[in-house]
Structures are given as structure tokens and as C-alpha cells.
């Protein structure tokens, strides 16, 4: 029966059983036809994906999934953003097989066509910056910077890629100015090998900083107060997947078809969030960052236009970075600089402000941004600079026009705050791993620490802060610091050891082993065993070293300037000092 209303009455009608059976059969047939069509369609998409995987080792798919399902997706595939109600993702063969188990609808997306990738076969052909360099030209350019500007840059090798290509980094600074503490800023690009706008842009940044140092006072001041590390190409195997002579076949993944920006330790999932071994590139970047201990960092990408601040693995409603206000301030300054020179719609494709929280955009695990922020206490953002991952080569100069000023000012703005050196109050030795805590900011264990040379830097907005310095074996030191707008406050902090016996021993050794003190041109040292020594200044820099015999030794110190110095005595292994003595060089005129 079925019901139908007529005015204020309801009438009941009965269909013949034969008609009902016919309708049921027709409905089932329709369902089967639709299911057959869906299965056929998915089989066709699977064939297309597998063809891409066999040809390139990676494929791009668009997946129909809810926001709730995206967390599961992000652990199985390499998400690359959302388009309408579909998620864009990269997959390798293993990822695609695991993804199929979810039973979600998907379709294969053709890879972005690489338009005119004019290649430069010599450094001279890069002069107009409207070509991509071959791999050999890229290496030659990095070497050429060092050869032409030896006082302003040092070329360093971070490591080697899986296929043995160089991971290069240019350290740019006024190295003649060694008197001030210099924050360390790290720019890198193209951890996804097909996102190459940043590679050429950072090469041009190197060139601009070095060639403008003498004529531009802002650049001169920046390089006098900061060390800028620049790695234009973090995934050379992906960029030159088609051979060293072209980027036409560049791919996202590295030589092992692993997404390097999902391969770092993760705050939530731990050591191997992508279920892959750490790649050669990942290990190289982790070791380099641990050695250099960067203060601020930017990882440049393509495929969108947005400043993406931490976290990537958490949405803002789950957890916010303690320096969220600082991140927003420097990102807003960057966007303001960029929009002064770019079209009105540049940096608006993700948000009109040009800024997004990473997890609010889409959640990923294993990003370098989260690794640097969470594990190394470096303040890093991800900067997406072009919707096209590998733009037409002739368009590359436009991106420098849009971004050049902003990239320079980003370094300047993000290295403002407080800096200085931490020392032992008795010996004058510099102290490593002193925790610097801003007492009115909930730092969520993201404290910064002094480095091996005793130097420290803490990025801060303008304001007045109560700061605590702490280290095992030392009394806490509290100071009040005022940071002016666009300024940096420098403080030398002396910390008192809680081990009184060490202070007493130092005083005894000063009186009995080394004399005269103060000394003029010569020191006399009496020891009871053969030893080696070095003399360091208050910054921890070794100024003099040599060997001492059993008994009485005379050491010439004529070349030392007036001041307080530390002499360290070593055993035959020359590894660890077993005695420390303080002396004063004083020549009266």
C-alpha cells in the first residue's frame, strides 16, 4: 500500500503484487549497474595511477574524504592540500597499496605540465635569472660565490643525497666582525624536488647579499650582526631525476621515492612517522642542524602561496606554539613587504591574510618545521611562494621582484630580541647548554639554550621580560630585559657555581702554580707531571698552546693584550683539561 492526501483526507491505495516485484527487480538492477559503473571507473583510475607509478615512481591522486578521515590519510600518503571536497596526495607504490585498503573514492591527477624549463649550461647564462641551472652549474655557482667573496661567505657541505649529489650550504656574514654575538638564520628550499621556484630565488638572494654588501648599508648592517645559512636545493635527486642537465622531469620524492618532508622525527608519532628509514638527506640535515644550532629557520616550498607557522601535526585548537604572536608578527611584516611589489592576488590562495597555522590548513606528520621547533628549539616556518611548483623559466625574475625585499627583511625582523654570552663568574669560561627561560611566557618546554661558545639568542617582540638562566651546578640567575621595537638587547651573564670547592681549588692553584699574577711578558708555571696547555680568552677562543715539562716552565705571553685569561692543563691524551688556572696579563705604560 501507499498513502496519498486529498485535501483533509488520506486515501490508501494498493499496488498489485506483480507490479511491486517488477519495481523491486528494476531497482536492484539499477543498483547493480551503478556499482558496476563505479567499479569500472575505479579500475580505470587504478590503471592510470599504476602507469604513473611505473613511469615516475610517484603518482598524484585526488581523494574524496572527510576532514575526520584526513588524519588517517596523512599517515598513509603524502597530503598536498585540499581542493574543494577532495584531498590532493602524492603516493609511491607502497603508499598506494596501503591507501587502497581504505576503500575511498579517488581519481588520478595528471602531473603538472612543466612548461618551458630553459636550462643554463654556464654561470654566465644565469645572469638574467630566467633559467634553471643544470646540476653542474648549480654547484659551480655556489663555489663561485665563495671564490669571489671569501671574506663574506663560506661554502659548506651538509652531506650527500642518496645518489651522491651534494647538499650545499653557503654561510653568508661579515666574518671580519667577530666581536658581536650573531644569531644564526637558515634558509633552505626544494626539499620537494619539483618545487623549484625557491632554488633560483635563494641563489639570487646569495648573489644580492654578496654584491650589495659594499653599497647597501642595510645589507652591510645585517651581515655584520647575523650569520645567514642558505641551502637553495635540499633534494637534488628529486630535482634532477631526469638527469643533471634538466629539471623537466623533476619529482617530489627523493631517489628512494620517499617524501623528505614527512621523514623527520615527529612530536606525536616519534622517530619514523612515515614508516620509512631516515634517508641520507634527512640524516644530513638533522646532523647539520644539531651541529650549527640555528636560531631561526625558513623552509621554502611551492604549490601554494602562504606563510605556514607551527604546528603541522596539531591544529591550533589542540596546541599552539608559545611564540604564536611572534610568528604572526614576523609573517605579517613579510606579507606587507611582499604586497608592496606583487599583484593584489599574490599570497591569497590559502588565506586572504597570506598566513595560516599548519595544522589548520591540513595536518601532516614528520615535517622538518615541527622537527626544528619541537626537538631543536629553533623557530622555523614553512614558506610557500608559488602556486606553480616549477614555473615557466621566463617567469622566475618576477618572483624575485615580489619576494626579494621580504626575504632580506625577514632575516632582519626575526633576529631581533635578546642575545649575549653566558660565563662562569669565577673562571670566566663560557657555559654551554644554559637554559634561558622567559618567565612571563608559557614556553611549553621550548626553551632556548646557550651554545658551545656560550652565546645565546632568544627571539622576542618588543617589551620588558623577566629572564631566568639556569644550569645544573650553578645558581639560577634572574635579570630584567627590555627589548625595543626592532631592536636587540645584548647581555653578558655571569653565573656562580654551587661547588665551592672548585672555586677554592682555583684560588689555590692560582697562588701556588702560576706566577707572577698579574704578569708582564712571561709566566712561570710549576707542575708535577708532563702536560700540555692552552690559553683562552673570555670568549673561549684559543690564543696560545704548547707543551710543559715536569717542574718549572717559563711561557712567553708578549702577544697577549691586557686582560684576564684562562690556562687549561691537559694530560697526554690532550682531550679533557684536568686543571684550570686564571691569570691576568697587565703591562703598565
Task: Describe the secondary-structure layout.
Blueprint: E1 2-6, E2 9-13, H1 17-56, E3 59-64, H2 67-74, E4 78-83, E5 86-91, H3 93-100, E6 106-109, E7 119-120, E8 132-133, H4 135-148, E9 153-160, E10 166-172, E11 184-189, H5 197-212, H6 217-225, E12 227-231, H7 236-239, H8 280-292, E13 296-301, E14 304-309, H9 324-339, E15 355-357, H10 358-361, H11 368-375, E16 379-386, H12 396-414, E17 417-424, E18 435-438, E19 448-449, E20 455-459, E21 463-470, E22 477-483, E23 488-495, H13 500-513, E24 514-515, E25 522-527, E26 531-536, E27 542-548, E28 551-556, E29 563-570, E30 577-585
Parallel strand pairs: 7-8, 11-12, 11-13, 13-16, 14-15, 17-23
Antiparallel strand pairs: 1-2, 3-5, 3-6, 4-5, 9-10, 10-12, 14-16, 17-20, 18-19, 18-21, 21-22, 24-25, 25-28, 26-27, 26-29, 29-30
Helix pairs in contact: 5-12, 9-12
Summarize this structure briefly.
By secondary structure, this protein is an alpha+beta fold.
Strand tally: 30
Distance between the termini: 119 Å
Please give the radius of gyration in angstroms. 31 Å
Shape, please? elongated
Low-confidence stretches: 500-512
Number of continuous helical runs: 13
